[in-house]
Write a structure and sequence with these properties.
By secondary structure, the chain is an alpha/beta fold. It is built from 12 helices and 14 strands.
Length: 323
Amino acid sequence: MSEVTYIDAIHAALDKAMADDPGVFLYGQDIGTFGGAFKATKGLVGKYPGRVLDAPISEDAMAGVAIGAAIEGARPVLEMQFADFSSVAFNQIVNQAATHYYRTGVPVPLTVRLPSGGTPGSGPFHSQSMESIYAHYPGLVVVTPATVADAYSMLLESIELDDPVVFCEHKFLYRWLKSENFDGDALPIGKARITRPGKHATVVAYSAMVHEAVRAAEILHAEGGWEIEVVDLRSVKPLDTDTVVASVARTGRLLVVGEAFPWGGVTAEVVSRVSADGFHLLDAPPVRLNARDTPIPYHPKLWSSHRPTPESIVHELLKLLNY
């Protein structure tokens, strides 16, 4: 196989899921002949007639139709054009899909694909990271793949699950992140991965921030010989506390990095869990680093200083290392 991208992995996973299970269908705005806003479904409408369906411009209606189909035994994959717009379907996702099995014993095997995170020039309505909001609600699985292999294997696993899954795929990774193939160790949802081993400090990250954390670790190694361990959460609900605490036991220091807004959220949850379960392992107070607590700016230079960067991660790590 020639070099493949993150968006190629998503396309291939959708193709395989539909080939393997006639109950899988795709639903979203302009995903048919047009192939979707990011071309994740390009060419699939002809390959699977009647199973790649264009939706009205109503996220609320889209989610309602998909939930109803899932209750009746289908496995819909719902594409939101941007994660931000899923807030229009919030009631359907958190009050209907998330609670249905608890209320009735009937599962809702729905996968909601959210093109998440920021890209230069996208601004406040096309750049948000919604994973923390959905992870708050019982009944939803929330995944955040950071690699080409995980984008492929985790989407297939998400579609196979009987639980509703919010699949947060990062737009910045779509065509920037490349690999030789889709193969990887294919860890299950709920299991974190040690992306880079180290001994001086732990950085916990997910989605695109994993790559920023690795760059920061490489800078610190080149400049000072520091060995920074990077943990990729992979999914934020469920969250693999055991792997995180085990890493902190090796390093004694913790920085948690996320692209979402700072108030509450995944980074706060990781810090809380480590403080509760591994306080005795810490040699310094745990730290979290998020985007700034403002709407996301349009200007590329403002955007690049709004989200965590390798430089800002290095800055926080040096303070942590020198505590």
